[in-house]
Structure of TAFA chemokine like family member 5:
Amino acid sequence: MQFLRPAWALTAAAVCFLLLLLLHSQILREGQLVAGTCEIVTLDRDSSQPRRTIARQTARCACKKEQIAGTTRARPACVDVRIITSRQWCEMTPCLEDEGCNLLVNQSGWTCTQPGGRVKTTTVS
């Protein structure tokens, strides 16, 4: 009987400790991204001008070493840092599959041209 009381107390303390560890790891996991992934945080659209829509988005990325936030297939993605430093934007495949990519003359961004002729221009700031 003398050994049962401390054993139960020790067991209860161990269970509490394990529950605290589980809760702590769950709190840390929420809000964290898997390495190499991105998510859109904000997306603003301005259609006040006729025949023109200006869209601004903010993304949050957890990129691996030698990667940086970029765009792939019109979605935020982690891309090779060399693409950003060389300003060769089309190498990160920013346009959708049926669109053509062209660099802007001053390399400040790119255009995605759809088969019907519609052009989407993206500039990097």
Remarks:
- The beta strands are 37-46, 54-62, 67-72, 75-80, 100-103, 109-113, 119-123.
- The CA atoms of residues 112 and 118 lie 8 Å apart.
